[in-house]
Every structure is written in structure tokens, then in C-alpha cells.
Amino acid sequence: MRPSEGRIPHVFDGMQLQAPRLVLAEAAMDTLFLSYANPELAAEVILGHFESAPHPNLPCMREDGSYNMVADDGQVCGTAPEWGFPLWCCDHIVRRTGNLHWLRRLCPKAAAYLRWWLDHRRDAEGWLVYACSWESGQDVSSRFGPQQTGGTIIQHVRPVDLQASMAQGAAILARWAALLGGEQAVRTAIETPIDFAAEAAWWQQIADEFTVKTHLMWQDGWFRDYDSAAREWSSQQDTMHLAPVFCGAAGWGHIEQLRPHVSQPPLHSGWAPLSWPPVVMTLVGAAAAANMPLDAAELAYRFIDAAYRSIDSREVDQHGGIPGVTREYHAVVTTGKWGASDYVNAGIEGYGWGALSVHLLMRYLLGLHEEEADKITIAPALPQALRRVGATYRVEPVPWGNYVLGIECTVRNAKGYTVRLRCTQQKRETTAEALEEKGLPQSATFQTCEWEGTWGEEQTLLLPHLTRSSVNQI
Asked: Looking at 316-391, which runs of residues are DSSP E strands?
């Protein structure tokens, strides 16, 4: 996070240290990771990106206001809804904080962002396209055919992950509109009235439309891109083609056929599937959405382990990784006598989304799922490597709405766990102060509970009293 500079009137996510700039995908992912520790700052930063953008598509730009992503035909570009899934990232902050005042400011800007894509990036038959591969985030991907640079025009390709991301984003906006429509907060006279019921209905129609479009792209047992110029379906399989599962835009029949590919995914345009953080987020999220929590945990752990070995080292590693510094992506190396493949930190130093491990650990290993600010679902799914009987894994303090949580997971045996949860209730204005001091206010009150379960078994609890809502085996 960087202080206000140049044309940027607020604290902003600089994406990387050596060439800071505003990019929606990276900003959304970075603030999602930050929100586990400082949700107030995370919300302020991502809202600032939306509110200060010079155009609704949030073009990628430098601190001085100059654009750094321009297609060959002169179109000024920003990252697409499928790269980093920015509305999905924001929705996690909404669900965990329950801050509807903040959401009232964010929702119109997020809606304008998706409307821009509907107005400016649909082809003659209504399918979403990218202007260039830079706009997709998947620079010069072979999915989009021959390209001289990332600025080459590729508007003849209909990418399946882009259609699915619109279905997901529109469904999120419909839910936000329904939330805000039911809010009884006092509105000031200067606020422009919004018909949230109409907004919710309209965005749900868009979600339904692009879910149907996504289903139509299921061909020969795979979600495929379509070349409208050549009038042919792509034969290439890519990790990002699992996005419909992650986005909730795939049917159960599709998911059943894709299960083997989720646990053993294809390459991402020649890259190993766990190389790029946005792709990893898609893949692991797809495994979880397919009710494969143990597979999701193993995939997540492999990424976490590669990052942690370097970041927690006491000296520069053999691949140039500096202790405590995140990197841009993971490279594949061969190790050991038999030439096994492994991942190591690589690419640009100080790249924000290299902290993806924070999200993977919290959501897929400890299994913390945001339902609402006063409701949490916990479904621990530690990977095999961490299931040492008697081992205890603890994380705290975790801000959750008006509460602060402490979660402890002990390995009971190969098949199950014991979880101890502590929920501290405090006045909202003391939360940030308490976190900064790494302690809790003396006046805070807390509740605790403990339960046992098998790996992947979930428990939903109501905060702050930790009333058990339901138990379901995944």
C-alpha cells in the first residue's frame, strides 16, 4: 500500500515495488489478502481505486495519470472481470465486515465497471471479448491465437472464462442491490436515489444470460473458447477454462466430468497450473466449488509451501529469493535424484499478489468461509503433510465484523480435527486500535466453543454467542 502520489488522491495499491501503478486485478487481490488483518484499510484502498478512476473500466495507469495499457488500435484498457475476479474479492470484504455504508459507495462504481464491459466489449452477437490479451491479464496467451504483442487486437475470440466472470459479477451485484434495498439507513438529501429492487432484478437477468452463454460453450466434454472469425471451437485446454466452476456458472453435469481435471489440471498457456496467483485462485476455488475440499487443500498447500520456503528463509535462496519478500509467480524446477518437479518463487520482487498464500491458508486450509458479518462457516481441511497427530495450528487476531476471532485447529488423527474458537466482542471503534496493539481491550467480552470433526466437515456458527447453526459433511 502506497501513500497518495501524483494524480492519486488516496492510499493505493501499487501492485509491485519497482514500477508502481494502479491495476484493478492486483488491487482487488491485494486488498482481499490485507482484509484478513486490516479490513478498514483494505476497504478504503479498493474503494479509492473505484472512486478515483478516470473511466468506468478502471484503466491501468501510473501515479502521474498516464496510461500503461493501450491496445494496438489505441483503446485504453483495464483488467477484465475474470482476472483476479475483483467483484468476488470485494464481496468477501462485504460479507466479513457487513459495512453497508461502504457498500453504498462501492456498488454504483462496481456496477458501472460491469456495465462498461457490457457496453464496450460485446461483439455483434452479444458475446464478451477482450480488446487485447493485456486486457485479459493473460498476456500473449496462446488461447487467443498469433499475437505480435499483448496489444494485438483479439476481438474475434470469445473466451469462456470472461463469460463466466460476468455471470458471477452480475450475481454479486444483484445480491448487493438486494442488501442495500433492504437497508433502512438514513440517506442524505444530496444522495441520488437508486431503485435497488430494479437493479437487483436487472443484474440477475444478466447473470442468467451469461450463465446460459457459458453453458453453450461446453463442447466435447470441455468449456472451450470460440473463434468467431474462423467459426471454430478451440482444441486447447487451459487451467482458466475451469473458471465456470469457480464462478458458479457450470452445471453439475459439467462439474462431474471436470473433476479429474480439477485435481490434475491442464497447463495455463504453457505455464504450470500453480505458477500465476490469479490462475491458482481460480483453480483452488474451482476445486472447492466442486465439493472437493481435500483436493483444494492439497493444491493450495503446494503453492503455500513453495512460497513459504523462500519467504521464511534466513538467507537468499538458490533462485534469488529474498527472505520476507513476495515474488510475481512460481517457476517449475526439477529436484532430487529422480528429477521430480517442484515450484519455487520467481519473477519480479515485491509483487503484491505473491501474498496469495494468506488467502489460501485462511480459506482452504483452516476453512474460514464468510457467510455474513455475524455468521461464519469453518471447514478445516489440512493437507496430508500437516496432519501430524497432536500438531496445533493457530491464527489470531482475525477481524470479523464487530468481532475478533482466534482459531485453533489440532490434528486429532489422520481423519479428523479438534477446533477451538474464541470470539471477542468489542466496540467497533476500538477494533483497529486493539489490532495495532496486538491485544484486546480490557472491557471486551468473549465466548468460546470447541468441537471435533472429520477433515472437510463444516460447522456454521452465529456470532458472537457461537450458536451452532448446522453441520454438513462436504
From this structure: 327-335, 340-349, 368-372, 375-378
Q: How is residue 1 written as a grid cell?
A: 500500500
In a domain, 48, yes or no: no
Both 340 and 390 in a single domain?
Answer: no
In one letter, which amino acid is 303?
A: F
Q: Give kind and range of the element (H or E) at residue 298.
A: helix 293-311
Same domain, 386 and 430: yes
Q: Calculate what percentage of the chain has a pLDDT beyond 90.
A: 82
Residue 357 lies in a domain: yes
Angle subtended at Cα 166 by Cα 163 and Cα 168, rounded to the nearest 5 degrees: 115
- Residue type for position 84: G
DSSP state of 265: P
Cα 140 from Cα 269, distance rounded (Å): 9
Each residue's pLDDT tens digit, 224-271: 999 999 999 999 999 999 999 999 999 999 999 999 999 999 999 999
Does residue 375 sit in the same domain as residue 468? yes
For 318, other C-beta atoms within 10 Å of its C-beta total 9
Q: Read off the pLDDT of residues 87-103 as tens digits, 9 standing for 90 and up.
A: 999 999 999 999 999 99
The DSSP output letter for 195 is -
Residue 107 burial class via C-beta count within 10 angstroms: exposed 0-12, middle 13-18, buried 19 and up: buried
For residue 145, give the C-alpha cell: 491465437
User: How many domains are contained in the chain?
Assistant: 2
pLDDT digits (tens, 9 = 90+) for 175-216: 999 999 987 444 544 466 789 999 999 999 999 999 999 999
Round to whole Å and give the CA distance between 391 and 298: 18
| Statement to judge: residues 301 and 383 lie in one domain | no
Model pTM score: 0.93
Q: What pLDDT is attached to residue 183?
A: 73
Which residue carries 515474488 as its cell?
A: 327
Query: 309 with 390, same domain?
Result: no
Nearest to 49 by CA among 95, 106, 134, 118: 106
Report the distance separating Cα 332 and Cα 190, nearest Å.
Answer: 55
Continuous H helices in 349-447: 356-360, 428-436
- 353 with 377, same domain: the answer is no
Which structural domain range is residue 354 located in? 268-365
Mean pLDDT of 276-290: 98
The whole-number average pLDDT for the span 20-44 is 97
